[in-house]
Amino acid sequence: METFSIRKTVLFVQIWIMLNVSPSMAWCRFPAFSKLQLPLQTIGPEASAFDRKGGGPHTGIADGRIVKYQGPKVAFTDFAVTSPNRTKARCDGKNGPELQQICGRPFGLEFYYRTGPVGVALSKDNSYVLITEYITQRIQRFWLKGTKANSSDVFANVDGIPDNIKRTVLGDFWVAIFNTKQPTTFSLGQRINRFGRVVETCNFTDQYNSPNGITEVQEYKGKLYVGSLDQNFIGVSRV
Asked: Tell me, what CATH number does 150's domain have?
């Protein structure tokens, strides 16, 4: 009976997807999922960034450091700190939020190349910026140029809590979505085109089965780099 019940549930989910998901939206398939392991006793690679020469990824972790990935033989090394009061003896490997005032805690890491503000996504033609809204579960667009300059509108509504948003080289946007609807939680990366339409969804729930889900999905040279608040690795998957 239990096996029949599971099969029935799976069949129901498949039917629901066929009836409710737009045919133009693709579900990505993972040929492989790998992990870039953080230094010992550290967690929380909330966001990733690559420098102008392609070095990295760099990521901010819970003990206040920004670390840089130097390849499989070296792994991560210290790159920067986020607090003048931080000491290695007191902070390295200490991930508790009570030490953030002393050790610092980097969020929303990004390199500034004169392409726009940090923490939001700038459109490819620099005409607007996108800002994710946690409570309203939507992405807001603020116009910088054109007849709509200095006004805003809703770019997209999402089914869950949006976190970091990153633009791709082609002008689409990847946004991390954490869906906390009971009884199941989902960690999704969704690629949204310039018209505000979801064109691809990647389900990272199996890789990030935690109460905090994922915080970022960034596409770089054919790979997706996935961030989180409570894991000890950066997830990597091919597009």
From this structure: 2.120.10.30
Q: Which two tokens stand for residue 35?
A: 């992990």
- Residue-number span of the structural domain to which 160 is assigned: 32-46+108-238
Q: Which two tokens stand for residue 177?
A: 């979505």
Q: Looking at the domain assignment, is residue 69 inside a domain?
A: no
Q: How many residues does the chain have?
A: 239
Q: Based on the structure, what is the number of domains in the chain?
A: 1
- Vertex 226, ends 25 and 60: CA angle to 5°? 145
| 163-220 tens-digit pLDDT | 999 999 999 999 999 886 666 788 999 999 999 999 999 999 999 988 888 999 999 9
Walk across the sheet containing 223-227 and list its strands.
Answer: 33-37, 233-238, 223-227, 216-220
Phi/psi for 6 (5° steps) reads: -65, -45
Radius of gyration of the chain (CA): 19
Other beta carbons within 10 angstroms of residue 172's beta carbon come to: 17
State the DSSP code for 31. S
Residue 54 inside a domain? The answer is no
Amino acid identity for residue 208 in this structure: Y
Does the residue 208 lie in any domain?
Answer: yes
What are phi and psi for residue 213, nearest 5 degrees?
60, -145
* H or E element that contains 10: helix 2-20
Helices (H), the chain: 2-20, 88-91, 100-103
Residue 130 lies in a domain: yes
